[in-house]
Write a structure and sequence with these properties.
Chain lengths: ~425, ~325
Amino acid sequence: MKNITKLGVVSALSLIVGASASFAETIKIAFIDPLSGPFASTGANGLHQFEFASDYMVNQKGGVLDGDMFEVVAFDNKISPKESLIQLQVAIDQGIRYIVQGNSSGVANALTEAIDKHNRRNPDSRVLFLNYAAVDPALTNEKCNFWHFRFDANADIKMDALTDVIVADENIKKVYIIGQDYSFGKAVSDAANMMLGEKRDDIEVVGDELHPIGKVKDFTPYARKIVASGADAVITGNWGADMLGLGKAIIDNGFEGPIYTYYAAGSGMTAAFGESGKDRIRLISQGSINPIGSEEARATYEAFEAKYPDGNIDQSRIFNVIGMLATAIEEAGTADDVVAVASKLEGMEYDSMWGGKLFMRPQDHQLIQDMHVGVHTDENIDFDFDQSGYGIVNESTIEMASMDSPTTCEMKRPE
Amino acid sequence: MDLILVNIIDGLVTGLLLFMLSAGLTLIFSMMGVLNFAHASFYMLGAYFAYQISIALGFWMGLLLAPLIVGVMGAGVERYGLRRVHQYGHVPELIFTFGLALLIEELVQFVWGKNQLPYSVPDVLNFTAFSIAGNSIPAYKIFMIFISIAIFIGLLYILTRTRVGMIIQAALSYPRTVEALGHNVPLIFMGVFGVGTALAGVAGVIAGPVLGTFPGMAFVLGSIVFVTIVIGGLGSLWGALVASLLIGWITTFAKSYNIEMADILNGIGIGTPENLDENLFRDFWTITSPQIADILPYILMVLILIFRPSGLFGKRHS
C-alpha cells in the first residue's frame, strides 16, 4: 500500500515537473546518420551517445538559458548523400536549427554544400552543421564554410600524430599501407606516404594497396602479401567489418608487428579481437578513456553504462559537441540566432571532461585537441569496450595536435 | 615458390567453404527447380546459433547442434512455407525465399544486435599447424579442410551408393513415377531441403570464427554462391565442387600477386601509351589484379553462360 502511495506521489510530481518544463522551449538537434543497413551499428551507437549526452550534460542540469531542453531527433539517411539531403529538408521544415552528422565524408560533403546554399537563400531559417566524425580534410579546407564545424580531428591530423609515433620506433623500417578503395582510404594512403617520407626517409613503404570496400570475404591473401613483404608495421584506415576481417587475418596468418589503425575499437570489434589483438592493435583517437580523463568523465561513463549496459562511449567527442553547443548558446543568450551561436563557437576554448583543452580554430572551424595513440590490452583498464575486459590504453599523447597546420580555407562570414 | 603452396592451401579453404554452401543450394535447385535466395541466411543462422550454443556448451556442441537446428528450421520452411507457395508457380517461390532472407537478417539484428559477435576459434585448435617461409597455417584451417572433405565424401556416398540416395535421385528426375511406386516424394523434398540448409549451417558454424559473425555475413557471401552453382552447372554436385575450388583459387591468386593490366597488355604486344595521365583508358591501364579479384568469378560466369550455358558439369535441360 505504502509503495502504491509513493508511486502515486512520484508520478504526480513528475507530471508537475513535466508540465513546468514544457513552458521552456526545447532546442532540437537533428541526427542524420545510418540507422539501417550495413553501417547501422555505428549509427545507432552514435545516436545513443548523443541522446545520453544531451540528457545527462544539459537536461538533468536544468537545461540552457531559461531551462530550455535539448532534444535529439533521429533521421535515418541509410548512409546515402541523396537520402541525407531529403532528411535535411525534413529537419529544416520541422524548425530544427542544429544538424549533427558523422558517418561518411561523402554525406558530409553533400550536407555542407546544401546547408551553405540554404542559409544564403533563407536567412530566416539558417542551420548549423556540427560534424562529429567525417574526417575528409577538404571539409575544413577548400570546401569550408561558416556553418560547418568539425569536432573530430581530420584524416591528416590523425595521420600526423600516428606517424609521429611510428617514426619514434626505431624497429620500424618497413611499413605496409592498406585501405578501403574510396576517397577516405586514398586520403589515408596519401597522407601516410607523404608524412613518413618527410619525417624519416629511411622508412620504406613496402606495400600500398586498396581493396574493395565491404566486399572482401576473406582477407587471408592480403595478409600473406603483408607477411611476404617483410613489413614491420601495418597502417590502415579500415572500419567496420573490413577492419575486423583484415585485423584477424593479419594476426592469424603469422604477422608479428604492430597494426596502426583509425577505427579498430568498439561495436563488437574489441571483444572479437580479444586476446589475439593484445599489444598488437594500436589506435589513434581523441579523449582519454584509459586512464579516464577526469572524475567527471568517470561519473559520466558510469551513468552511461548504467543506462546502456552493453554500450561503449567510443566517440567521446560527441560529449564535446553537446558541451560546446550548450556553452555557445548560453554565451550567445539565444538558440534561435544561429549566427550568434556560431560566432561564439568560433575560437571557443573549452575544457573537455575527457582531458585536455579544445580549441575551435576560427580560420577553418577545425577543432584542435589532444590526440592519443592507444593500444588494445586488458591491463590497466578503467573502462573496457563490449564488456570484454579489453580496452584501449593510452601509450602516447600529442598535445593540441597540428595546432599550426595550414589550411586553404577562406572563411566567408555573414554580415 | 613457397607462397604458391601457401596460396594453394588458402584457396582450397576458401573453395571448400564455398562448396559446402553451394552443394546444398544446387541440390535444392535440382530438386525443386527453385533458387533459394535465403540460402546464405541459413549460413548466417548457423554461425549465430553456434555462437549462442558455444557460450553455454562449448564449440563442439555448437558444431553438432547448430546445423541440426538450422536443418530442422529449413525443413519447416519447406513444409509450411514453400510447399504452400509452390502451387502458384516459380515466381512466388522466388519472392518467398527473397522475403525470407530479409526477414532472417532483421530477426538476427533484433535478437543479437548489429555489432560483431566475439565468436572465436576453440582453444584446442588455436595454434599454428605449420608455417611455410614465415606464413603460418592455422590448425583451424586444416580442420576446415578435413570437415569439408568429409562432408563431400559422405554426401557423394549417400547419393550414389545407398538406397535413400537412389530414391532421391529418382525423385529428382521422375517424381511422379517414384510417387506411383509408393514413396513419399514430399517427404523426400522436405528432407533434401533440410539437409541442404543444414549444410549451409555447418558452413556458417566453421566460417563464423574466421570470417566474422555479423548481420552482413549472409549478404557478403550471397551472390557468390549463385555464381558458383551457375558455373558448376545447376544441380551438379561435382560441378559445385569444381566451381568452388576454381573460384577459391582464382580469387586467392589474383589477390596475392600484383599483376598489372599494363604488364598483360605489354605481354601481348600492345605498347603503353606515352602520356598515360591524359589517356582515355588510364583507369583500364592501371587496374591491378587485387582490385578486380572479387569480380573475376562474375566474369567467369558470363563467359560460361556464353560458351557453355548449362555450366561445366550441368546437363542441358530441355
